[in-house]
Amino acid sequence: MTSRFLTLTFAALLSLLLTGCGYNDFQRLDEQSKSAWSEVLNQYQRRADLVPNIVATVKGEAAFEQDTLTKVIEARAKATSIQVTPETLNDPAAFSKFQAAQGELGSALSRLMVVSERYPDLKANLGFRDLRVQLEGTENRITVARNRFIQTVQDYNVLTRSFPNNLTAMVFGYKVKPNFAVANEAQISTPPTVDFNKK
Fold it and tell me: Would you identify the CATH topology of the domain 28-147?
């Protein structure tokens, strides 16, 4: 009877300690960040799935710049070749590699859209216009999904670094998660030069 009472008391104390130390909050925020990350991946996949249709449509324009198309195809291949696992969220190097590959694909697609403006037949192509609208919508969804992910990771990281929850984080091995970052902060902080005198 006494050992059972001690076991129940110990279990009750342990559950109180774990609840009071943020253990459940770590579980909740970790799951939220995984869920938000899944949505980011879902939107990236949606974009990757659009690329073959866009490339096929653009190839119909005989004079279209082959170099631009090649860069889009290569960027898509690179972005989709990276294996993303749940551990990617906790590995800053793997996360950065994935982010860089997605950034290259986004840049290549942006360049493709800019170059396509020079081709009236392509701009007039209804299929291409529909694909362009879908791509723009997907880019907006990516932005929303990334913002949700950034917020959930921020909440998790604040919990991980705040006292007394940081003690729980140390005991259970919860580490700060990497988050999305701008590839070249110095470059974007420099205002663009605008020269209205150029012809």
Answer: Substrate Binding Domain Of Dnak; Chain:A; Domain 2 (1.20.1270)
